[in-house]
Amino acid sequence: MDLVTTKAIAGVDLLTSLPDGGELSCWLRRGEGIVGIGCAHSQTLDSAEEADTWWSQILGSTQIINDLEDQPMAGPVAFISFPFSAEGSYEIIVPKILIGSRKGQAWITSWNGASWDPQILPNKPVPARARRCTSPVAQDQWLAQVREAITRIHDSHLAKVVLAREEILEMAPGFDRRWVMKHLGETYPQTWTFCVKDLIGASPELLIRQDRGLITSRVLAGTIHGDKDATALAEALSSSSKDLAEHEYAVASVAQALDAHCTSLHVPEIPFVLQLPNVMHLASDITGAVRPGSTVVALASAIHPSAAVCGTPTDQARELIAELEDMDRGRYAGPIGWINSHGDGEIALALRCGLITNEHVHIYAGCGILADSDPMAEWEETNAKLQPMKQALGAA
Questions:
Q1: Domain range holding 183?
Q2: Pairing assessment for the beta strands 272-275 and 32-37 based on DSSP bridges
Q3: What percent of the chain has pLDDT over 90?
Q4: What CATH number does the domain containing 382 carry?
Q5: Whole-prediction pTM
């Protein structure tokens, strides 16, 4: 039987505490959250249901000593990273050591006596530097995909489809992912900075949070960027019929998926504007009370894929994505986050992210295509959404 212990420690800067090298995991927002070192347990599975079952089995053979029961992130935690497509690989990892900090408390969770000495200062993160950037799909080819999607929307019952593209960055030797996490966390504090199984990024979209029976889902759809002042951009976004329609599809898909799992659900009538350093989004925070027995993984599975990353109707949009996109999304735009021993946790959509493969990082961006979309404007939107990762990787 495994033994997991959690105890309070002095305040700590989570990112500067991470050692150089080895398997690292993280979930941070505004400097708070959890970081993981090493691996106590790990598995690649075929479904979200299998992941829930696997985690329950691990917990069933684990003795838990937790001095901070009031902290949802304290105690046994598993990081998850699921694919966009149902047929992909469902990754789940339990770090040997978890270091957490939230609301003025800090703690360490250790599996089977694993130790961590905060007095041993790790090497400072080394700035990332990309040598070159390539696009597997050329601009004119991607624009043709968008035009074809618009034609299909006009000729069918399809209302929206999300098309994405990737760029590949070749990194200089000594690539330090701690630098990427630090840069993203400091530059985009409103987002959820994550690193799970070589997928690293900063997502602005919280798919689902479950905490003691209460849930929250932040839905983003509708984007603007440009050189105008912030007030003018926000007004333009809030009055854009195209963006408002795109947002309405996304909110409706999430609300419908959650309704069967909740005893009450509040869906805002009007979105607010979420301002990030590179773009603005229309956003809605859906809240509710969940039925007993639900896990955050099960709720994420019920929602995904929402219209925000797929389209509407879902099945038609998914088929068109598979037909038009010349890439495998993998875990991009899939659920990513953490789950604790009570089934609570936080799961975002893996957006503004990159997949680390040896000396390369594959970065991704997509946008919602509607009947009145402008292909070149959609291309520029993907460029804006690629900027966070390019900046963090030293390519912009």
A1: 2-120+127-392
A2: unpaired
A3: 87
A4: 3.60.120.10
A5: 0.95
